[in-house]
Amino acid sequence: MTNNNHDADVAFIEALAALLRENDLTELQVKREYGDSDCLNVRVSRMMQAAPVAAAPAAAPAPAASAAASLSAPAAATDDPAAHPGAVSSPMVGTVYMQAEPGSPPFISVGQQVTEGDTLLIVEAMKTMNHIPAPRAGTIKRILVEDGAPVEYGAPLVILE
């Protein structure tokens, strides 16, 4: 591989990283074929964390800004479903289904009591229907996803209290 190809590949990878950030993606994979025996296979991924974002405003140097940040930080923490102690997160990337098949009743509804192991919903990944069980007994307080919606790994699905 010549230096020109190397420079072009580096620029291509940097452009993929920028695309990842700009579109708030967690992973991107691309394969470029240059010929029969020369190709570039690139996978760019990043870990998304909500906690550092919430902690950043509290480090403001001005006293007035610190007071304002400390007042808004608890509100932000309660508004973030992923930070809720009862959040049930998606164990995989896929598509959410709220019922076993179209036309049948949904597995859960707000206010419903569930026991440990009850199916909360289904996440389809690679044509496999994965039943997401309740990690413990409790009451469904919020449903954070819609039927047929795509979900990312770690995305909050429901709030169980």
TrEMBL record:
GO function term, MF aspect, one: acetyl-CoA carboxylase activity
PROSITE patterns to which the protein is assigned, alphabetical: BIOTIN (PS00188), BIOTINYL_LIPOYL (PS50968)
Domain of life: Bacteria
Domain Lipoyl-binding: 85-161
Pathway assigned to this chain's UniProt record: Lipid metabolism; fatty acid biosynthesis
Alphabetical list of InterPro entries matching this protein: AcCoA_biotinCC (IPR001249), Biotin_BS (IPR001882), Biotin_Carboxyl_Carrier/Decarb (IPR050709), Biotin_lipoyl (IPR000089), Single_hybrid_motif (IPR011053)
GO CC terms in record: acetyl-CoA carboxylase complex
Keyword match Lipid biosynthesis: yes
Gene3D superfamilies named in the record: 2.40.50.100
GO BP terms, alphabetized: fatty acid biosynthetic process
KW Lipid biosynthesis (keyword) present: yes
Keyword annotations: Biotin, Fatty acid biosynthesis, Fatty acid metabolism, Lipid biosynthesis, Lipid metabolism
Free-text function comment from the UniProt entry: This protein is a component of the acetyl coenzyme A carboxylase complex; first, biotin carboxylase catalyzes the carboxylation of the carrier protein and then the transcarboxylase transfers the carboxyl group to form malonyl-CoA.
Protein name: Biotin carboxyl carrier protein of acetyl-CoA carboxylase
